[in-house]
Amino acid sequence: MSQLEVKDLHVTYGSGTRAVPAVRGVDLSLAAGQKLGVAGESGCGKSTLALALLRLLPSSAKLTGEILLDGEDVLTMKWGRLRAVRWAGASIVFQGAMHSLNAVHRVGDQIAEPILLHRGSTPAEAKRRVGELLQHVGLPAARADAYPHELSGGQRQRVMIAMALACDPRLIVADEPTTALDVMIQAQILRLIEQLVAEQDISLLMISHDLGVLADTCDRLAVMYAGRVVEEGPARAVYDRA
Ligand code: ADP
Ligand code: ADP
């Protein structure tokens, strides 16, 4: 059984004459431990797909189809079950850590939140776990006390990755994880993601407009165009055809 299977997914924002069909019949599958890249130009529906996987889309978005995570359909899951699946079943690393992190809270407290909420840890356990996670992503544990603006872009992205790892997810969805970063830092963050998913046997769905980045990191590639997957296959083969 695939870890993730997306079947005939449609996502439309709004309705009537102003309806925007963002995803128009996508099928994808990801086996446990695999790394799948989803490429495509801006506006083709990649972020919508990523957010749909955990039902994190705004309520104006209408979804049909199936999103099976370990065989369970995310789209019909009860709310309580969905909350358990978020973070532990699959976790998302978003683009632009500055917008995704809360500017007025220390980063350690932000990483601790899903741990406290979803793992039922005590504050002391959560604090220890935050320190471990920060070290895991190459930051000193003491950086837990920093506010997002006190960190560099690369460090903030490391914090986002630490947060995504907080509840030991089996799948990480990384949406343009390096886009806002300098080229040198991009390579470091990609290596970090590769190393972490390999060490902890986490599956990866990575989204990027940059086919080259995906071809280096992923086993398989899907290319989207206007809401559809127009090409899918082994990473090198898809890259060479493009
Ligand atoms: P990508 O990640 O590939 O750049 P998106 O999934 O962000 O693509 O966008 C796909 C389409 O959906 C685009 O036409 C975009 O303008 C539209 N869209 C994205 N988010 C929203 C939203 N919240 N409300 C309405 N339309 C949206
Ligand atoms: P709450 O736990 O406060 O009810 P949600 O579960 O709706 O909130 O999630 C709050 C925010 O946390 C979401 O809008 C999203 O940005 C982020 N989030 C939720 N689940 C995940 C996840 N698995 N990975 C990364 N971010 C997530």
Automatic annotation (TrEMBL):
Q: Name one GO molecular function term.
A: ATP binding
The protein's superkingdom reads Bacteria
**Localisation:** Cell membrane
The way it spans or sits in the membrane comes to: Peripheral membrane protein
**Predominant location of this chain?**
membrane
The reply to whether Membrane figures as a keyword in the UniProt entry is yes
Name the keywords, alphabetized.
Answer: ATP-binding, Cell membrane, Membrane, Nucleotide-binding, Transport
* Domain ABC transporter: start-end pairs: 4-242
Query: Which family, according to UniProt?
Result: Belongs to the ABC transporter superfamily.
**What name goes with this protein?**
ABC transporter ATP-binding protein
